[in-house]
Design a protein that fits this description.
The structure is a single chain. It is built from 5 helices and 2 strands; from the N terminus they run H-H-H-H-E-H-E. The chain is mainly alpha-helical. Strands 1-2 form a two-stranded parallel sheet.
Length: 180
């Protein structure tokens, strides 16, 4: 269950990054005026839908096999986000090439879109680890536990749970059975 929940959370953060990066790239295109002048933004909406399909493909290929987002280091997070964006970018490029509609798009837009998407995915995933994990541990859905045992065992168990990625349990009390 834990890996499924964190998979949902990572997918949600990746989709947020995908959509926000699309709108940031459109805004940058308007402000900086890079690439070719396109009379309409209707073709660019297709890029967003194709990128979502590309993300679904990347999700099926990589995210289902990867380690949990909450226990990956920054290097693995970096490579995971890069692979994800690379597959999404490849699907968009193949779409543009296969449908022969590349002339309707600014190619630099697609590159800027992929770059912003990569940066946002890395940042959102790192924020997810730093912000969401403590929030989940203290939430209402966490199971409350009272620990009973020797002080040494309780301390070691509490340290392990503190550094664990399992956010479903919250220690609310401890009963020490040592006689002193």
């Amino acid at each position: 269950n834990l890996s499924r929940y964190t998979y949902y959370i990572q997918t949600l953060s990746d989709l947020i990054a995908l959509i926000v990066s699309y709108f940031l790239a459109i805004a940058m295109k308007e402000v900086i005026r890079f690439g070719i002048k396109v009379p309409s933004y209707d073709p660019y909406i297709n890029v967003l839908f194709v990128a979502l399909i590309g993300y679904a493909i990347a999700s099926i290929v990589f995210l289902s096999k990867e380690q949990n987002v909450l226990n990956r280091g920054w290097r693995r997070e970096f490579s995971s986000a890069f692979r994800n964006v690379a597959i999404t970018f490849a699907v968009v490029v193949f779409y543009l090439f296969g449908t022969q509609t590349g002339r309707d798009y600014s190619r630099i837009f697609v590159v800027v879109y992929a770059g912003i998407d990569f940066l946002l995915k890395v940042v959102l995933r790192m924020l997810l680890k730093e912000w969401a994990l403590p929030l989940f541990r203290n939430g209402k859905s966490a199971e409350q536990i009272i620990m009973i045992g020797k002080e040494k065992n309780i301390n070691s168990t509490m340290e392990r749970m503190k550094h664990s990625i399992d956010w479903r349990f919250q220690i609310v009390g401890a009963v020490v059975t040592d006689r002193d």
